[in-house]
Every structure is written in C-alpha cells, then in structure tokens.
Amino acid sequence: METYKFLLDLCLILLSTKVLGLLTRKFSMPQVVGALLAGVILGPGILGIITPTDFISDTAEVGVIVLMFCAGMETDVQELKKSGKSALIIALIGVLVPLVGGYAVAAFFNRPGMLESDASSSLFLQNVFIGVILTATSVSITVETLKELGKLKTRSGNAILGAAVIDDILGIIALTLITSMADESVKISIVLLKIVGFFIFVAIAGFIFYKFFSKWSAGEGVGLQRHVIVSFVFCLFMSYAAEQFFGVADITGAYFAGLIISMTQREPYIASRFDVLSYTYLSPIFFASIGLKVSLPEMNSTIVAFAVVLTIVAILTKVVGCGLGAKLCHYKNYQALRIGVGMISRGEVALIVASKGESLGLMSTAVMGPVVIVVILTTIIAPILLKPVFKRGPETTLDPNVDIAKNYEAISKFREGK
C-alpha cells in the first residue's frame, strides 16, 4: 500500500523550522540555527518523530545545490577575481592548521589505555585521518546566514566563498592522499588530473553557455520563465558533471553555474525566482535533514573528553588558520575574524568524510560519536558567531544591482520576516 507519510514529514519540517527560526531570531540568532535545531528535535536524536528517508535525503541534496547556485548568482565576479589569490592562501592555511590540530588531539587520545581502536589501519593513519576530517568546511550554513544578514556581497563574504571552493578541492586531495595509503586502488595522480579537468570543463562549458544564454535571452522579453528553467537545467547539469565525472562536490558545480549566470542580464529575475523556491521549500528541508542525521552513541568519560577537546580544536584551528591567512593577505582584523568564523562549520561534509574513512578502516567506530558532536556544535555555533562578528567594523556591502527585478525587493523583505 502506498504511503503518504512523506507529506506529513514535510508539514512538520516546514512548520517546525519556521517556528524555531522565528524563536531563535527573537534571541538575536540567525533563523538557520532554528532550522538545524528543528531537525535535531524531530529526528532520532530526541523525539524520533521523523526518520531520515530517501525522499528527504534527495530533496535536501537539491536544496543545498539550489542554495549554492543562488550563492554563485549573488557573488560579485570582479570582487571574487580580486580575492582569488587571497582565497587560495586562506584555504591552504585553513586546511593545514586543522590538519595538524586534529592529528595532535587524536595522537594524544587514540592510544592503548585511552581509546580502544578497532580500525584496521595504523595508528598514524588513523590520527592523520582525524585531522583530514577537521579540514572539511560546510559553507552552505555560512551562505544562508550571510544571505539572511545581507552580508554575502561583502569583501569578507566573497573571500569566504572563494576559500570554501578551494577548501573543497584541497579536502578532496587530502582525503585521496590518506585513502590511497589505506587503499592501493586509489591513485592520487588520477584524482589531481580529474580536478584539473574539472576547471577546464567549467571554463569551456561556462563560456559556451554564457554566449548561448546571453544571445538567446537578449532578443526576448524580460521576466520569462523559460530563462529560469534553462538556468536550472544548466545548474543541475554542472552539479551532476562535477560529482559524476570529476569527483568534485556537486555543490561546487552548482556554485560555478550560478557564477556564470551572475554575469548575464537576466540574473536579477532568475535569482528572485530561486530565492522563493529555496526559502519556502528546499532550504528548510536541507537544514532540517542535517539535524535528522544526529544520533549519538553511548560514550564513556574518555570519549566525552576527546569530543570536547576535538570540538574546541575544530573551532579554534579554523578561526586561527583562516584568520591568519586573511591577515597575510592584508585583510583588516575584523575581516580576518569574519572569514575565520565563516569557515568553522563542518556540517554534512565532515560526516561524509568520516563515513568514508570508517569503511576503509581509517577510523574507529568509537570515534564516530565525537565526530558527530563536532559536526553538531560547529554547525550550530558558526551562524551564532557570524552575526556579532559581522557587526564589527564598517559596513562593506557592495552596491546592489540597479537592474534588479521589481519583485525582488518584496521577496527580500519576505525572507527577513517583514
């Protein structure tokens, strides 16, 4: 018999994320925190009313793709070009510092008499892998928070986005290096070749689509829905190609698709349409789905201590590492702090990396609990800290596009809850 429980799940998710979002806003916190908490409360971690399903998982995946597509459209390309070199340095140091910090914490706790490891690989590889997990960054939480605060088009916001994309690439390389030591079938040379191929593909596909779309849409009326559909097709294709052919995260492909659309004349109208879709349906499901995955195993005092120390190190290493990279690139102190805080969240990215390592014998099952705690706390703390740090320093938001669609202002007000 066909079940329609997914409809009830959707009702509960959309209602709870909005109610808790408004509640957290009352306490001067971004609404995305409420959406994350809604998933934790409704999921197996507390009430167990909703369990993760394939439908929720697939919808959430589309949600994060659309979220990053919108982020790409809202990125100032000229500002991104200026921060290209800076983003590389920020991402590089922002990967190295957590890698070392995670290894140091694991080396202290992951030894006989403290943690009993059932992983098949050597202790050295296990400890390095904990560092690899901490290098991950889930920028989707930061993007939604910055959009809510109206700070995505700042110099700091662009630096965070650029660094996050590079961080994703560096994370893939680090993961491949460590897994190749545990699995001889993984070849780092092939992975590096695929990454280079991905950027070549983005350049070629982006150029072709930009020329086609600009010429095709120039002779038509403003505000046609066919422009939105074709843009979405391009977004989904880039996401699929990135993951399927090049081993790069699908959200990276979606971000570049949005970046290409941002250079066209139809971007304001297209962005306004996707903004409504993301806000009313896809984003709440995505953020709630992260909370639904939370399920803490039983832990003894040693594992709890490991979880606490690992969480502190996870937060500090991103703030210090990315902040130091920003300072080396001559960002001001308040901008460096913004960038460091913006890279704190590990989100679903760390969980994916952890599950991959566990299957390859690079991580003990006892360590999964602390990793889940790190994911939960960094995901919730990041948006909470972003609001006060973006109040520091002068206003640096770039001038909005004067060509923006007539209904976009109304949509922005709607998203702010006005």
From TrEMBL:
GO MF annotation terms: antiporter activity
Top-level taxon of origin: Bacteria
Annotated ranges, domain Cation/H+ exchanger transmembrane: 17-391
Alphabetical keyword list: Antiport, Ion transport, Membrane, Sodium, Sodium transport, Transmembrane, Transmembrane helix, Transport
Membrane topology: Multi-pass membrane protein
Pfam families listed in its UniProt record: Na_H_Exchanger
Any one GO cellular component localisation term in the record: membrane
InterPro entries from the UniProt entry: Cation/H_exchanger_TM, Na+/solute_symporter_sf
Subcellular location: Membrane
Gene Ontology biological-process entries: proton transmembrane transport; sodium ion transport
Regions that span the bilayer: 32-50, 87-108, 128-146, 158-182, 188-210, 222-240, 246-264, 276-296, 302-324, 366-386
PANTHER family registered for this protein in UniProt: NAPA-TYPE SODIUM/HYDROGEN ANTIPORTER, SODIUM ION_PROTON EXCHANGER (EUROFUNG)
UniProt family annotation: Belongs to the monovalent cation:proton antiporter 2 (CPA2) transporter (TC 2.A.37) family.
UniProt-recorded name of the protein: Cation:proton antiporter
Phylogenetic classification of the source organism: Bacteria, Bacillati, Bacillota, Clostridia, Lachnospirales
